[in-house]
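Please produce the structure of this protein holding flavin mononucleotide.
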Amino acid sequence: MTQTTPEMLQISPEYYAAKLPAGQPAVGTMPNERLPEGAKLPLMLQELEIPRGTGTFTLKNRASVPPMCMYSARDGFPAPFHIAHHGQFALHGMGSIVVEATAVLPEGRISPEDVGIWKDEHIAAHAGLVQTIKAIGPGVYFGIQIAHAGRKASTPTPWLPGTDDAKPYVEEKDGGWPKGVVGPSAIPAAEGHIVPHELSIDEIRSIEKAFVDGAARAYRAGYDFVEIHSAHGYLISSFNSPLSNKRKDEYGGSFENRTRLLRNIVKGIREQFPDKGLWVRINGTDAVEYTREDSWTIESTKQIAPLLEEAGVDVLDISSGGTVTYNRFDLVPGYQLPLSGAIKDLGLKRMKISVVGVLQDGTEHEPTKIGLLAEQSLQNGKADIVSVGRGSLKSPNWVELAACNMVGVPTVGAVQYEYAVASLKRFQFDVSEKS
Ligand SMILES: Cc1cc2nc3c(=O)[nH]c(=O)nc-3n(C[C@H](O)[C@H](O)[C@H](O)COP(=O)(O)O)c2cc1C
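Below is the modeled complex.
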């Protein structure tokens, strides 16, 4: 398996830094001299100082790319695809980028094609990715989501032919590990899915260690921060939720016991890495309030948020759902804003709040609306950081388009592009004259 290394790419942030004029503004920013007269700098384009362990980091803007599985790795190694994929967001100035759910153990992958960080051999490939992305997008805050899929592991890559509900898991002959699927309790994620092996206390402790080791490898590779995946029904979130956790020991029952896995992982990482970036993605709700079952709700998130802040988490990234298939959402633009807003309302002093979920109004045929809902969410105090997933897959230059919509000019573009794009101004675009 070929690994992508910085040496292969012959590229480094220092190379660009040496070539560029001093004081070159970073992509994705809006220096005052660029802002049209009378226009006010939108919050989204303002810098934001966020905690980073014992220190701080200044985000160049508040637009973020959330983790998104691409199912394009072999044996966990990030590949040139991942460089191109994250490169497009970095090149166009997104302020922070989080690499997809990356497995801390091979059996913690969602699919056989997931990215991984379970062995030291992965580090060089991640380092190649990190160095390239930082060179391409100066000032970008580049992190990685570390994850264990738990009872939702060994599932098929959604875009591979033959993937359908009739075959919800990948068998051993196709590279899956149905016998290695684990969870807090022997309850499958959905009908027809694998009944997970109920983890013993020793096995849970070794998973806690795997998360800390995975974080250590990520920091060694140069990532600015790791985001612990504690959402969407994957392992940690399945411990948090009483829907999937029916244990009677110290990891089940009370809120304190169910959240022990998450809290131990945070503690383990912080003890070893007091000065590194540490984010947590958490469910704002399991979204089954309508059933009246005992579940993870916004009250649970309100309870855990101050504990995570105290434990040294820098950013809490609010999402929801995925614990059970019968969750229900009112899928309107910004549908998770009430959840992030409830956490913002707690008035926490240190930890910042990120929100995600269709932060775009209008339809996909009305791109002029890009950025307006996200900006409004920041203005209304619903979040500190706005994360845009599918929107940035569709328009990797999302933040540039948002700037155009908000103040009439794009954010600073890549030096390699800007002078060329500027030459287009000479042309009058009027197709009607030619027809
Ligand atoms: C292709 C795809 C892959 C995703 N993979 C992950 C993942 O690895 N980890 C995660 O926490 N969320 C994942 N998500 C959820 C997104 O991070 C995001 O929360 C969700 O898409 C809603 O935001 P959006 O409406 O801006 O797309 C994924 C979403 C998509 C579309």
